[in-house]
Structures are given as structure tokens and as C-alpha cells.
Write a structure and sequence with these properties.
Layout lengths: L1 E2 L2 E6 L2 E8 L2 E8 L8 H11 L7 H20 L7 H4 L2
Antiparallel strand pairs: 1-2, 2-3, 3-4
Length: 90
């Protein structure tokens, strides 16, 4: 992901980041956080069938989707694209 202040590049086990701070180029590696990805779809099924609480709430998913859509628009326009007002403050 390329932004106005740097980039995140997916790599094995995490992301490499590149930015600049006070005129100094900075880069590093951010490891993936341990997660429970394999439980995502079983949780949705449990929610639909048994009423279990969702691990990922619709509001959380909406924010991620908005970020992805803004990133796609930005890649096409070559400019920073704003998030919708109701998500930019979350």
C-alpha cells in the first residue's frame, strides 16, 4: 500500500514499512499479530445458527472496506482520497 507518507509492503510473516520522519528515511518490519483467522467463518456460522456474538462486528468490517476502497481510488487517481466522514473519526 502506497500512501502520501510512506508505504506498507506485505512480506512473509508481516509487513515492511517505509516512511520519512524529519527528513530521515525510516524503514522496518512489523510482524503479523497472532490471530484466530481460522475461527472467522465458524464464528459467522455460529452467529447465524446459534446467535453467538460476532468476533468481527459489521462496523469494523465497514471501516476496513472503506479503507480498501479509498486505497483503490487513490491508486487510480494518484492522489490521497478521503474516507467517508462517518468512518474517518473512528
Amino acid at each position: 500500500m502506497l500512501g502520501t507518507k510512506g508505504a506498507l509492503v506485505s512480506s512473509e510473516g508481516g509487513f515492511n514499512y517505509y516512511t520519512e520522519s524529519r527528513g530521515i528515511k525510516v524503514s522496518g518490519f512489523m510482524p503479523d499479530a497472532p490471530g484466530t483467522h481460522e475461527q472467522y467463518y465458524p464464528n459467522i456460522a455460529a452467529h447465524l445458527v446459534k446467535g453467538a456474538e460476532l468476533d468481527v462486528k459489521p462496523e469494523q468490517a465497514a471501516r476496513v472496506i472503506a479503507i480498501m476502497e479509498a486505497a483503490e481510488k487513490s491508486s487510480k487517481s494518484g492522489q490521497a482520497e478521503p474516507l467517508p466522514d462517518d468512518l474517518a473519526k473512528v
